[in-house]
Write a structure and sequence with these properties.
With about 325 residues, this protein is an alpha+beta fold. It folds into 2 domains: about 45-100; about 120-320, Immunoglobulin-like (Sandwich). The protein is built from 6 helices and 9 strands. The chain has helices at about 1-10, 15-40, 45-55, 70-100, 135-150, 155-160, and strands at about 120, 130, 210-215, 230-235, 245-250, 255, 275-285, 290-295, 310-320. It has a 5-stranded mixed β-sheet with strand order 2-9-8-4-6, covered by helices on one side. The chain has a 4-stranded antiparallel β-sheet with strand order 1-3-7-5. It is elongated. This is Sodium/potassium-transporting ATPase subunit beta. Belongs to the X(+)/potassium ATPases subunit beta family.
Length: about 325
């Protein structure tokens, strides 16, 4: 009896001969099964692979498409439809709340608005104004641009849409911010020789071009802090004698205070920016002459070298005869 127990105990030990035989048999069975699967896979033809793909795309026996039944596809599509519908609704709600915080007439934050920049007209081929007096086709684009820009400044249009204001003081209009504001008249005739009325070519046909200068609009900005902002032009680099004569219109060469403040395009619908015209009556011909025009006044910044439009603008003449 003790000998049988000892024999059974020995058979159950991991290192016994009986256990080793069983392990070898199991390993041989695994190897044979693996070899059988590899043999089956090796015997698959392209036809079998294509057929399996067809069955995956549509299995007529189980009526599945890509492994899913119609009910399964319906449920998953419904889930994603509801999910993205909720996301779209949440996004729309956030946008709606944000819009409620915005003022349609005045920007909420204006603490980073810099002093005004300036721009010129005509603006056709950049800031190099090059033409030949003897070739009208070279300067007609500048003339057409000037007439198009000044159409809103026609005297008849200004009298019809805008009112006469008291010069030398701000035209402050209080009351409901949604109420439409009136605009002061700036008649084209104020530009005199650069109005295009007496000389429809603005001097370009004689090699004496006119340039219009305007300040960029800033809502609520009171230019000059009580003193009109003036304009000055000179040669930027080179010989000062390259620019011998320039006339300004209005002759005060200033932007009158009555055109400020600006209340925005929604309520200041007929507003036309005031202009200062520069009539370059004597500029060196057949050469490039860089001109810099600057604003001068309280609160004006015109010496930032990396911003060529802040309080100043640089353009170049190349007038051929």
């Amino acid at each position: 009896m003790d000998m049988n127990a000892t024999s059974r105990g020995a058979e159950g030990q991991p290192g016994s001969p009986h256990q080793k035989r069983e392990n070898k048999q199991g390993q041989r069975m695994q190897n044979s099964g693996r070899e059988g699967r590899e043999e089956v896979m090796a015997k698959k033809t392209w036809t079998d692979v294509i057929q399996e793909m067809k069955n995956f795309l549509w299995d007529p026996e189980n009526r599945t498409c890509l492994g899913r039944t119609a009910k399964s596809w319906g449920l998953i599509l419904l889930f994603y439809f509801i999910l993205y519908l909720c996301l779209a609704g949440l996004f729309a709600f956030c946008i709606y709340i944000m819009v409620l915080t915005l003022n349609p007439y005045t920007p909420t934050y204006r603490d980073r608005v810099a002093p005004p920049g300036v721009m010129i007209r005509p603006y056709v081929r950049g800031f190099t104004i090059a033409f030949n007096v003897s070739e009208s086709s070279s300067w007609l684009p500048y003339v057409d641009s000037m007439h198009h820009f000044l159409a809103a400044y026609n005297d008849t249009v200004q009298v019809e849409k805008n009112i006469e204001c008291i010069a030398g003081q701000y035209f402050i209009q209080e009351g409901d911010e949604s109420k439409q504001k009136r605009a002061c008249q700036f008649k084209r005739s104020l530009l005199q020789n650069c109005s295009g009325i007496e000389d429809p070519t603005f001097g370009y046909s004689r090699g004496q071009p006119c340039i219009l200068l305007k300040m960029n609009r800033i809502i609520g900005y009171q230019a000059g802090a009580g003193t009109p902002v003036s304009v000055d032009c000179r040669v930027q680099k080179g010989n000062e004698s390259d620019l011998r004569s320039v006339d300004f219109y209005p002759q005060s060469r200033t932007f009158d205070l009555m055109y400020y403040p600006y209340y925005g395009k929604h309520i200041h619908v007929n507003y036309t920016s005031p202009l200062v015209a520069m009539h370059f009556t004597d500029v060196k011909k057949n050469d490039f002459v860089p001109i810099q025009c600057k604003l001068n006044g309280k609160g004006i910044v015109n010496d930032v070298h990396n911003d060529r439009f802040l309080g100043r603008i640089i353009f170049t003449f190349n007038i051929g005869m």
